[in-house]
Amino acid sequence: MQVQGKVAVVTGGASGLGRATVEALVQGGARVAILDLSDDLGHALARELGPATIYRHVNVTDENEVKAAIKDTMEAFGAIHFCINCAGIGSAAKTVGKGEPHPLDHFARIINVNLIGTFNVLRLAAVEMTKNAPEGDSGERGVIINTASIAAWDGQMGQAAYGASKAGVVGLSLPVARDLARDGIRCNCIAPGLFETPMMRGLPDKVREGIQMQIEYPKRFGMASEYAKLALAIIDNPYLNGEAIRLDAASRLPPR
Ligand SMILES: NC(=O)c1ccc[n+]([C@@H]2O[C@H](COP(=O)([O-])OP(=O)(O)OC[C@H]3O[C@@H](n4cnc5c(N)ncnc54)[C@H](O)[C@@H]3O)[C@@H](O)[C@H]2O)c1
Question: Tell me, what CATH number does 153's domain have?
């Protein structure tokens, strides 16, 4: 689909990969609703980018908050064509750590934000997409892009919850694409390797160096703008559907 003149909702849009995608979409001529929990960052970004954006405080796990933000987006911009889910949180806890079992509430929280939150937003955005006029030869009405991680396949020690949540996001792509096929809505997910964002900046230098060793080429962390480029390429290409795409410079995570 063409980006120019369209409307997107981007969760986690105030920071990191989501923020870079918001910027790229606005640069491409779209209007964007930034949905996030980080109000200071979200308001600042909306101020910086001007009237092509709105910011709404949304916890992606909260049905009513997401419904309200979708309604506000429809009122502000009149349609929703793209839904990019970047909201997510990390985790680190072993299945048994120091003789204690992995806290169950911790496991549930990661699944709730990363997996259930993603599905919550995409299902509500998809309803609005079904109302769009079909575009182009294939009659497209919308595009959904979710964010998994290479931990969906290569989860490290301590990543049982995170890896499971991201494997769930990979697992969503095909059935959601099949569900929405007759409406002309595609669904794909990007599985990033290691990207230079606030989420990763907190890592100790030693851990960062260890991770960097696993990256083949280019031998550096990814840039958020490179995630955004792939998101726009997915939007652009009508034949890309139901897929999980690793964006990882050929890296494979080791056990630790
Ligand atoms: N950075 C990486 O190396 C990397 C690698 C693989 C996958 N990912 C995934 O990419 C996505 C974006 O990560 P990032 O690196 O940009 O992180 P980030 O921390 O910079 O951005 C994440 C944003 O999500 C928001 N958020 C968190 N929980 C939320 C909730 N419940 N509701 C609404 N917003 C919420 C945060 O406020 C933040 O602004 C995440 O899903 C992450 O798991 C990142």
Answer: 3.40.50.720
In a domain? residue 253: no
Token readout for 202 is 């907190």
Question: Which atom from ligand 1 is nearest to the alpha carbon of 196?
Answer: 1
Pocket of ligand 1 (CB under 6 A): 11-12, 14-18, 36-38, 58-61, 86-89, 113-114, 117, 147, 149, 192, 194-195, 197-200
* 40 occurs within a structural domain: yes
Percent of the chain with pLDDT over 70: 100
Taking only the tens place, the pLDDT of each residue in 57-90 is 999 999 999 999 999 999 999 999 999 999 999 9
Domain count, the chain: 1
The angle subtended at Cα 222 by Cα 56 and Cα 24, nearest 5°, is 40
DSSP result, 19-30: HHHHHHHHHTT-
In a domain, 217, yes or no: yes
Kindly state whether residue 126 falls inside one of the protein's structural domains: yes
